[in-house]
Amino acid sequence: MRAVVTGATSGIGEAIATRLAERATVVLVGRDNARLDAAARRIERAAPGADLVLEKADLALVKEVRALAERLPRADVVISNAAVITDLHDHTAEGRQTLLATNHLAPYLLLRLLAEAADRPARFVIVGADPVALAGAPVDLDDLEAHNLWLPDPDLLPFAAYGRTKNMNAMVGYELARRFPGITVNAAHPGIIGGTGLGRHAKGALRELGERLGRTAPGPEVGADTPVWLATSSEVDGRTGGFYVDRVLTPTAEHTTDRARCARLWRESAQLVGISGE
Ligand SMILES: NC(=O)c1ccc[n+]([C@@H]2O[C@H](COP(=O)([O-])OP(=O)(O)OC[C@H]3O[C@@H](n4cnc5c(N)ncnc54)[C@H](OP(=O)(O)O)[C@@H]3O)[C@@H](O)[C@H]2O)c1
């Protein structure tokens, strides 16, 4: 079995890659060679004999996502896990908002290109976030970069906008499952997980919240459980287009399942990355 894991240099992605390395060749996707090497060494220590392939790609850049999709060998499992929480004003060298580009455009483009190129069944798993919390954070399809979002505490804006991108993950999962019946596509909330790098740029109240959670929440191995189960378990055979929490099929808000909204997000995202909206 060959598995691809994005964001495998830290946190939940590294834990997913470690678990998968016990039974598969694992392609670790990361944006920095030193961090990829360090993660590979940690994974080899935890899973002796691991067969790892390191792929450097900055997923915030559309041209690097395209190049990655072209050079990746056919995979049985693809886990889209990479994400960031960054300031809304951070932009990539390509001029796109870093938050939207990394958390939404990258999984959209990578999974779509891999699905279009697939010549045999595969499983795609998208690491999303808490559907209960995100029920109150509908994606504004007229404002994908969340410029109109307002909160009394501006330090919380990156987290609120991040939440919207995680709802986009669920919407893309549903749309991929509808469009590519040959691929098993599911998404998962990993749980509230400590010991990861997600809050590293947080300020003020958000930083305090992250630090408090980091002290009490379970670690990345727990967050890896449902994504790895979706990627490998025979219990998932024939189950596509679902969202799972603790291995349980869980409904997400209607604003994420609405077919017209998912189709519109698909089209608008295609335009943003310069491919066909069909
Ligand atoms: N932790 C939680 O409580 C929680 C809750 C709900 C959902 N999630 C989701 O779980 C997933 C993993 O998060 P985490 O908590 O494990 O955070 P993390 O430790 O920060 O892991 C994020 C990974 O994404 C990578 N990444 C970020 N930007 C990238 C880019 N431009 N190109 C390539 N790779 C990039 C990071 O690489 P670097 O090592 O180079 O930074 C890192 O490996 C995310 O999808 C997150 O939304 C987490």
Describe the overall structure.
There is one protein chain. The protein has helices spanning 11-20, 33-46, 62-71, 98-117, 131-134, 157-179, 204-216, 220-232, 254-257, 259-273; strands spanning 2-6, 25-30, 51-56, 77-80, 122-127, 183-189, 242-245, 248-249. The chain is an alpha/beta fold. The chain has one domain (2-273): 3-Layer(aba) Sandwich (Rossmann fold), CATH 3.40.50.720. Strands 3-2-1-4-5-6-7-8 form an eight-stranded mixed beta sheet, sandwiched between helices. Helix 1 crosses helix 2 and helix 1 packs across helix 8 (220-232). The longest helix is centred in the middle third of the chain and has 23 residues, at 157-179. The radius of gyration is 17 Å and the shape is globular. The mean pLDDT is 97. It binds NADP nicotinamide-adenine-dinucleotide phosphate (NAP). NADP nicotinamide-adenine-dinucleotide phosphate (NAP) binds at residues 7, 9-13, 30-32, 35, 58-60, 81-84, 102, 127, 129, 166, 189-190, 192-193, 196-198, 220.
CATH topology (fold) name: Rossmann fold
Number of strands: 8
Taking pLDDT < 50 over at least 5 consecutive residues as the criterion, the unreliable ranges are none
Q: How much of the sequence is in beta strands? A: 5-15%
Instruction: Write the element-wise H/E pattern from the N-terminal end onward.
Output: EHEHEHEHEHHEHHEEHH
- Taking the alpha carbons of the first and last residues, their distance comes to 31 Å
From the 3D coordinates, which CATH architecture would you assign? 3-Layer(aba) Sandwich
Give the CA-based shape: globular
The Cα radius of gyration reads 17 Å
Arithmetic mean pLDDT:
97
Question: Quick one: biggest sheet?
Answer: 8 strands, mixed
**CATH top-level class:** Alpha Beta
